TrEMBL record:
<dbReference type="Pfam" id="PF00535">
    <property type="entry name" value="Glycos_transf_2"/>
</dbReference>
<protein>
    <submittedName>
        <fullName>Chondroitin synthase</fullName>
    </submittedName>
</protein>
<dbReference type="InterPro" id="IPR001173">
    <property type="entry name" value="Glyco_trans_2-like"/>
</dbReference>
<dbReference type="InterPro" id="IPR029044">
    <property type="entry name" value="Nucleotide-diphossugar_trans"/>
</dbReference>
<feature type="domain" description="Glycosyltransferase 2-like">
    <location>
        <begin position="9"/>
        <end position="165"/>
    </location>
</feature>
<dbReference type="GO" id="GO:0016758">
    <property type="term" value="F:hexosyltransferase activity"/>
</dbReference>
Amino acid sequence: MTKKFPLVSIVTPTYNQAEYLAETIESVLAQDYPNIEYIVLDDGSTDETSEILKKYSGNIRYERHANMGQARTLNKGWAMSSGTVLGYLSSDDILYPGAIRKLVEILERDESIVCSFPDADLIDSQSRVVKKNICQPFNLGDLIIRQECYIGPGALFRRTSFEAVGGWKTELKLAPDREFWMRLAAHGRFEMCRDVLAGYRMHSNSISYKDVSELAASEYLWVLDQYFANALVPVDIASRKSESYGYAKLILARNCFRSGFLKRGWALYQEACSLHPPLRNFNIKIKIIRNVISKPVRIALSTFRSLIKS
């Protein structure tokens, strides 16, 4: 193809997501962009994933391998790919019409942009919109200091930048994406497309719903350790190192509260406040309570809707 339509390689790692996989695949195949390489990798699924993938033989490139996790699977897919523009789409998320075309246009108009991503909807298990406009423009300070990742489904990035920073860290389970964005941001700008071009699915089996142990969540601290060990940390972010660790501890505290470990959660919250005293603010406490309560409410609503559908 001409330079106007650089090859875009999209990788979907999937593990026991047969219920949503076909809709994800269809959303990519329906794109109006003329030069897409679509790779779907079955990470050892035990459900009907293989049967679904067979239906798309000839339209997508797919393989199955023994379970090795999301990060390793994505790295494998990107290594297999040929595109000058790379991306990924989780096997329960969807792209809306025109997504890839609009995001490539952003990359093509400015070489200083290394990543483009769209606004997105939060959708439920039946693809009904739960909340609109859930993404925000990229902010490196918020990502590192406040642990806020505003990038949802559909992000595209340049292969040259990807090869310069390396793939996802395979030792990470909860934060491989945000750690990757931290490294990629050192190579150029991130641009958000204001159009809503993707659906980010929340359901009872998604990572966002699952209880996370303190040990697992501690990888947020590991990510900060790695980042601040870098000599190229911007001065304005380096000066707020304690604040960043305070917010990371706050996430650990919230997860403990959600899991019912109230005493440990309170201890972690106190550690967070010692690192960044403004976290004692009343509004922060209200936000923690709201986040803790909202999880079981969303699970109950998702389960109720599923029961109604069946």
